[in-house]
Structures are given as C-alpha cells and as structure tokens.
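Researcher: Batch entry, complex prediction.
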Amino acid sequence: MSTPLFETRNVSIAFGGLKAVDDFTLTMQRGDLQGLIGPNGAGKTTAFNLITGVYQPDHGAIQLGGRSLLGLPPWKIAREGVARTFQNIRLFPDLSVLDNVRVACHLRTKANMFQMLMRTRQYYLDEAELSARSHQLLEAIDLQDRADDLARNLPYGDQRRLEIARALATEPKVLLLDEPAAGMNPSEKQELVILIRSIRQRFGLTILLIEHDMGLVMKVCEKIMVLDYGKTIAVGTPGEVQKNPDVVKAYLGEPASAGP
Amino acid sequence: MPEADVQPAKLSAPRLAARSLLPLLACVGLALLFHLVAAPLMKPLHVKLAMDIGINIILAVSLNMINGFTGQFSIGHAGFMAIGAYTAGAFTYYGGLGDVWGDESFTHGILSWSRPLADFTGNLFTAGDILFLAACLVGGLMAALIGLVVGLPSLRLRGDYLAVVTLGFGDIIRLLMELSDGQLKTVADIQSTPYFQRYTHLGGASAMSGLSFMTTTFWVVLFACFTLLAAFRLRMSSHGRAFLAIRENEIAAESMGVPTTRYKVAAFVLAAGFAGFAGGLFAHQSSVLNPGDYGFIKSFDILIMVVLGGQGSISGTVIAATVITLLSEFLVRPPHLWILGLIVILLLAVFRQRKAMRAIIMVAVATIVWEIARALALHFQINLAQYRMILFALALVLIMILRPQGLLGIREVWDYLPGRKRLPTEMKA
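Model: Structure tokens for the complex:
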C-alpha cells in the first residue's frame, strides 16, 4: 500500500484540564470521502482547527503527502493544499461573490507588490488567470449570475456553497467541510450531495466532512469516524458505525438501568 | 472605476506599456495643467489652500490603506508625517546648504535654495529640485522603515493594540522633536558640527525655520495623483483584495492563504511611506518644522477625513479631505454656502436612487445650520476657527450617530450613479 495522501497520528490538544481532542488518528488516500461525526462538543471542529493550524497540537503528527504540517501557520497550510469551510459561515460579506473567490486564488499568483503597482505583464496574466478560474468555480456551484452581488446578500444555502467554491479556489488536495448542510432545506441538501460528489470527481479531491445530518453523511461518505469527548470511538463504513453500540451510546445515552 | 478587461495573451508590448504607463503620464499631465494653467489664475491664498488639500489627500488616502482596506485602526498618522517632514527638512537644510556650497544667506549653492520666497506657482524646475525630491523620498523611506518597526510587533496581534501603539507613537515622535537641539543657523556653525550630529539639531520646541520653499503646486498635484493611482491599483489587484479580505474576516483570510500579519504590515509600511512623503512636501511648503504641527490634533484631522469619507472608500476620502481642509479655512472667514448646498441637493435628487430623501434632508439641515452659524458669528464677531476642534469633534459624534459608515461607506462615488448594475448596499451600523 502506498503512503497515504493525508494522515494524522495521535494528535491531541488539551485546553486546561479538558482534552478536547485525544489521540486523533486518521488516514486518507487520494479520493477518499470520509465523514467525521459526533455529538456536540465532541471535538470535531477542534480537529479541523488542529489540521489547519489554527491550534497547534500538544503532540502528534500531521502529514500531507509525506510533508509535515506541524508548526505551520494557517496560510501556509492553505498553500500546502488543505482548504476548509467554516461551521459558522465566514465569507467576506462586503466583497462581491466573485471577489470572495478571487481572494482565495491569490495564493497562486506570482506578481509581487511592485509589479502590481506598476501593472506589469505578470499582473495582467495573474488577474486574467484568477478571474477565469473564479468564474469557472462560480459556474460549478451555479452562482455565476450573482458574481457581482455582495456575498452578504446571498441566501443562506448559497453562502454555504460559495464557501465551498472559495475553498476550491485555493486548489486544495484535501478539503475540510465543516457542517456544509447546516441550515439548508431538504432540496438544498440534495443539491449539496450532488455538488460534493461532483467536485470530488472533477478536482480529484480528498474530502473530510463534518456533518450533523446523518442522512447526508450516510449517503455520501464511504467511511465514517465517530468522536465523543475528543476520543475516537468508532471507525468504519456507515453500516458498521450505525450498529456500533458505543456510537449508539454516545448519541442516545446509556440504556436506562434499573433505577433506585 | 470599471474592472479592466484583461486578455494578457493578446496584450502586445506597446499596449501593455500604454496601460501600465499612461495613467502615470496622465498624472504628470494633470499636474502640469494645474501648475501652468489653473494655479496662475488663482489668488495666492487659494493656491495655498489647494496645496493643503493635495497634501491632506495624500495623508488621508494613505491612512485609508490601513484603516479602510485592512480594517486596522491607526490613529497616529501625523507621526509618520513628522518623520518624513523632519528627515526631508533636515536633509535639504543641512545636506543641501551646509555641505553643498551655500553662502551666508543660503541662496547661491548649486544644490541649495533656489526658491528663497514662497512662490508656489513659479518655475517648474529649479536646481534644488533633485535634492528636494531625494529628500522627500528619503523622508518617505524613513517613515516606512519606522512604520515597519512600529507595525511589526503591534500588527501581529488582533484587536485594538494598534490604536494604542500608534496613539503613543505619534506623541513620542512629537516629543522627541521637541527635545531635539537648537537649529544651527550659520554656515560656520553647520560646518563646525560633525556630520551626523547636525541631524540632532532639529530646532526643538522652538521650531526649525528657514527651510527652502521647494514645494510647488506641480509637485503636490503630481504626488497626490500618484497616491490616488497607487490606492486604486492596489484596490483593484489581487493584493488589494487580500487586504480587504483581512478587513472582512481575518480568520477566513488566513485560511485562504493570505499571510495576514505580513499583509497588514505591508499596508502599514506603504501608508507610512506615503505619509512621510507628504510630510516632506509639507515641510518645504511651510518652510518651518514645528513639532506642534504634527501632534495628535493633526492625526485626528486625518482620521476624521477617513471616517467621514468612508473607511475603505478612496473617492470618499478625497471628498472628505477636501471638505475638511476647506472647512478649516472657511471657519476663519465664513462664506455663504447655500448655493453649494443647493447644488449638492440637486445632484442628489438627480442621481441617487435610494435613500435620497434622507441625504437631501441632511444636506439641507447642514446648510441651514451653517448659514445661521455664519450670521451669528459675523454678528457677534466670534472667530469660529477658535472652536475648530470642538466643532470637528461634534461633527464626528454626529457622523457616528447618523451615518456610521461615513459619506460613501466602502463604495466609490460612481457606485452611486444610476445605471450601475450593483446597487450600493449600506453597511450595517
């Protein structure tokens, strides 16, 4: 078996006495689509924050294509090829839809500040390339008609999809989606499933998905990892995970024992 | 300003050169036009006023790069202006006069004073211009360097640290200048002082006087235009969008690969550089280096221009810089403004689609208040200029209540014209 595209080994972080993420170990091959679920406060978003450099783990290893991501600031990790969306939408609200995507293309541009101020050929090359690419991405999420609108004026579901397009603009190898279906209606969720599958195919992505909507997770993910209180309590296919007694316990609590 | 339609593959070398350089040439043309045609027709007082406006535009537009683009809050911009002014002033004074063959009255050296009198519309170029421009450039670079030193530690942190640091910084610079040694006034004194020691003789609290009047309307208009061009090019570029992204959501920007600290520092250094250059122009316009000119009040003035115009709006900042500079002058001799008020109301009625009524009422009220204040001031012989800071502070409070996003918010003037596809969206208060 070849070395995995992306892996974390025994990643842990504690906030004071609270072990938010404990021995988080994850392996993903190119093209994997894995789900990360767990009750509220299980440490899912913290795991994302550890991977993307927002927090530094107390110990453990995080590698992308054999290169360690430990100690890198978030912007460097984005350049290495890990992009993410946010649980609470973090678009650039007063920039246009197009500009939201174009900002994320910035890390692949070559012109420096002086070339930009003098508008040399490199500047025009960069701008043309990233504009074309941004329009392509907006087409992929079907928002090209609203390119000039401000991001804040988009409906909620569109904002979530715009976040995905923005993350794609960084040309990631690994895409981390943090509750992309939150606040969506059933038909939007249906479209989201199609979108996730199509971008994975089209951009050859490896996707790690946090989601509370079990229907959606079970439908799109091939493998699911369950966290509870920072600990990994189950890994397996959707079918296996659903039957796992620990998982049932985490979500529904202990079966009622003989009371006093 | 429309987005450039860019097809670089088809962009031939001459067309590329035209696109890159024509705006620069246009700036030169505009400056020439102003200097050779417009300025000679104006009264000297108005020429001086126009130069003040130009210098304030450079200061306000550059501060807008920090406060408007990257959304940080710097309130010590006059400090950078002071560094530029003192560096450039000392450079022409000691460098140009003491070293390079000035005589007793400092008027006949090769690189020395070529403009002993304030003649802002005089000859386009004189022998001293090379030294003068070099001095302004050195002043700008020095301010940028200090900007790096101030910005690097304080911009690593999020939040209001920058405001606190820049507030202190502005005052420290002013105090340092006040504590500097007395000015060396004769060639003999200058020549008997070791080279680097001369630059500690900056006049102290009693000011350094007798700088050469090198700044002309040509240079002011030219560099105001350059500053505007740089600001617009920045805004329309990938780097500028990264700046705006930091303002919009720093965490998201960082996650999208924008090195936020580096870019905040870059904006800060760039803005400090422009402010330093403006300081150089200011010093050689007034011929005096007075620490009091660069105190908190000046920083506050520049800040008001940005806040009033709209943090993030370049054209708004230009309008506000113009209005506030004029207002300072108007307070001394208050003119009638009702004709101007009527024109603005008419323009608003013709061009603005939404919320025009509210804007019209505000302008109408402002005009009426002005006319009443003018009548009262004339009747009771009150010098309104004495109450300038009170009035400005009051205006700032009113803006914060009535229109917290400033005159234009984060949009530009032309975003409000009819026929624009994208309607301006008001920023939430």
